[in-house]
Design goal:
Distance between the termini of chain B: 67 Å
Largest sheet of chain B: 3 strands, antiparallel
CATH superfamily of the domain at 3-68 in chain B: Phenylacetic acid degradation B
Strand content of chain A: under 5%
Number of strands of chain A: 2
Strand content of chain B: 15-25%
Oligomer: heterodimer
Strand order of the largest sheet of chain B: 2-1-3
Mean pLDDT of chain B: 89
Distance between the termini of chain A: 58 Å
Number of helices of chain B: 4
Order of helices and strands of chain A: HHHHHHHHHHEEHHH
Radius of gyration of chain B: 22 Å
Shape of chain B: elongated
Number of strands of chain B: 3
CATH architecture of the domain at 3-68 in chain B: Roll
Number of helices of chain A: 13
Mean pLDDT of chain A: 95
Helix content of chain A: 55-70%
Radius of gyration of chain A: 22 Å
Largest sheet of chain A: 2 strands, antiparallel
Largest interface: A-B, 31 and 24 residues
Amino acid sequence: MPVHSFQEHFDSLIDREITIEPKDWMPDDYRKTLIRQISQHAHSEIVGMLPEGNWITRAPSLRRKAVLLAKVQDEAGHGLYLYSAAETLGITRDEMYNQLHTGKAKYSSIFNYPTLTWADMGAIGWLVDGAAIMNQVPLCRTSYGPYARAMVRVCKEESFHQRQGFEIMLTLAKGTEIQKKMAQDAFNRWWWPSIMMFGPTDAESPNTEQSVRWRIKRFTNDELRQKFVDVTVEQTKVLGLEMPDKDIKWNEERGHYDFGPINWDEFWNVVKGNGPCNKQRLDARKNAWDNGKWVRDAAMAHAAKRKAREGGVKAA
Amino acid sequence: MTNDKMNITKNEWPLWEVFIRSKAGLDHKHAGSLHAADEQMAIENARDVYTRRMEGVSIWVVESKYIHASDPGESASLYDPANDKIYRHPTFYELPDEVKYM
């Protein structure tokens, strides 16, 4: 049998589309890239609960309230699947929380925008979850096993999120003049941040090539963004709303919709922490963590006490 | 730095592996993992995290530190004994065409 280096063995698994599992040897950079990507994804799910949590108590009907609660609960679940996938790479849960709370780790910038009206619940489900699905479906075939398996679960649950959002938008768009205006206003505010969710252009994302090589990423940012624009333009026609981008135009030659320039200064500004709600979101997470400390400690103390008691009974 | 790290993780709830039987008659299958202070909380958390859509009729939880796993680096030698025994498979045996069912 020929002797291969660890690196050659790893490369050949990647080339043959064989999944990498936690105990397999992997290059340090592969591990680091995955920890960063998966934990960032987990943080996004957790912080992503906050803008919608804002509307649970003010949902317009019991049905809408139950649906929104279920959606937010799913997001907590998705965060937990992803945190445990990241933990298989050797980082602890508390380290990840610490990175989030100290600003060392990022989460999706979209959640730093405020949710001003009920229509925002529609726009978030339809656009933000729609963009997330576009990103996440290819990740079900990503090269790292625990991440891919977590994503399969996430994707199965995510499609109801987008549909409930579209349903809210459709109801408002077919409603009174004021309701329609509300839907259009939410669309206008969420459109640009949504297409920024795919990240910088391919020319500006130097890590894409390596991530595609490792099958951590299966499509580039621009490919996914284009796909999202194409389907959203069609869905907008069904809603009877106006695209917030006046430059949207079918390009026969490319077979895609062209769209206007993205304000990348705004994107980087929000990433750097200067978006409308960055501080509020991070404070909410830190407060939840700090104020929950006594509960975590009490649960551990209770478990230890019970164990000691049971041990005592057995010994007697 | 190491001290900081230890302080952060010192009080972390233990990690548990979750196994779920999706319906009666099937095996429990690994679903994922989660943190909980004790086994009762692990089962309740597993219900909330892994069975929000009726994915299970039975849950097992095992503290992750009790799982022992084979080493993928030793796969070749570990599975070597089974590698050359094709006579363990029914397709190894040739039957005359007259034998319709066996």
